[in-house]
Amino acid sequence: MTNLGERTSEALRSVFGAETRIGSITPIDQGRGVFSHVMRAELGGAPSSVAVKLLKSDANGAAAITSGAVDREILAYQQVLPTTPGVSAPELFGVSIDDRDLPALVLQDLSSFRHADQVEGLRNADLRAVAVELIALHTAWAGRPELADLTVRRSAPAHLPADGIDRGAALLDTRWSDISGERRSALQALAAHRHDAVEIFVSEGEPTLCHGDPRGDNVAFDHDGRAVLFDWQQMAIQFGEADVSWLLATSVDRDTRRSAEGDILASYAMARHQDAATTWRRYVVGMTLPGLAVLLLAQRAVDDERGERFIRSSIERIADAVIDLRVTDTVSRR
Asked: 2 near 28, Cβ under 8 Å?
């Protein structure tokens, strides 16, 4: 904590000035961050408190830099979100770089907002509130010429490592062998068709700017119930329904997804001026991203109960979506 406190203080003084009065500093991420720690700091001025996102000083932090995740998030807060009307996200007060070249983002404090728990799953109303923000993001960026100049990933599945997918598929039969055989087989079948899946995903038309990781742990809800999206490290350019697929695959159980997806996709199609069949097809194709990415998650080492539950629920929910929507059948028909 001392080191994190010192790094937090350094970042605050870099952004607000050397004379900044700093009060208590406490962790607020509850250990959920993979790449970063998030600290809340009380200040003797305006704003009265902020959140400071500190890159971890380990292999995960290094991966955030080499993968471009840090650059994407800074780009999002500095350039993308200020020019995106109708999307609710935290305000960025500044970025600090320490003497080890580790960045820290000083952001609006959302600790007074209601936060979701992805493991427990989003409530139906919250799920729809997130979908409203995604529609606003996708609509604002569809067809904008600035898309060509954004230094973010194009079609996220194309960047997933094939060897990592294979390792994760194998681990389903060892580390995760108590998950039902139907679920394990569905994800392994998708992995076996990953080349077709990626090709179909990449070729899907009408790209726009996507959050890339819209899920329960990356959203808060203000006092009016509006969703506020944070953690923009996985921002990508691809068809917008991929964001909807990720949200519904990761953050609700099978029954909630089944009851909500029809209405959400109908609203999406109407807002984007698309026919319902096109929207549904893209939603199904979009499921290939969580279906393959969860095999990378299956390899993550965890030493706490929530981390174990997080991975398990992700595998089960995503597998259920892949089964229900017959995703492998769609991507294997060529």
From this structure: no
Q: How far apart are CA 233 and CA 152, in angstroms?
A: 10
Instruction: Kindly write down the DSSP assignment for every residue of 259-323, as one continuous string.
Output: HHHHHHHHHHHHHHT--HHHHHHHHHHHTHHHHHHHHHHTT----SHHHHHHHHHHHHHHHHHHH
State the DSSP H helix or E strand holding residue 251, giving kind and residue range, or none if neither.
none
The token duo for 304 is 């706490």
For the purposes of burial, counting CB atoms within 10 Å of the CB of 208, is it exposed (0-12), middle (13-18) or buried (19 or more)? buried
Q: Are strands 153-154 and 236-239 parallel, antiparallel or unpaired?
A: parallel
Beta-carbon contacts of 225 under 8 Å, excluding residues fewer than 6 positions away, are 125, 126, 129
As a whole number of angstroms, the distance between CA 197 and CA 50 comes to 42
Q: Any long-range contacts for 189-192 (C-beta under 8 Å, 24+ apart)?
A: 189/328, 190/288, 190/291, 190/292, 190/322, 190/327, 190/328, 190/331, 191/165, 191/166, 191/292, 191/295
| Residue appearing with tokens 């994190």 | 4
| Neighbour count for residue 1 (Cβ, 10 Å) | 11
DSSP string, 196-217: HHHHHHHH-S-EEEE-S--SGG
**Taking the complete model, does pTM exceed 0.90, yes or no?**
yes
**Number of neighbouring beta carbons within 10 Å of residue 262:** 11
Spacing of C-alpha 299 from chain mean position: 18
Q: pLDDT tens-digit profile of 175-221? A: 999 999 999 999 999 999 999 999 999 999 889 999 999 999 999 99
d(CA 166, CA 170): 6
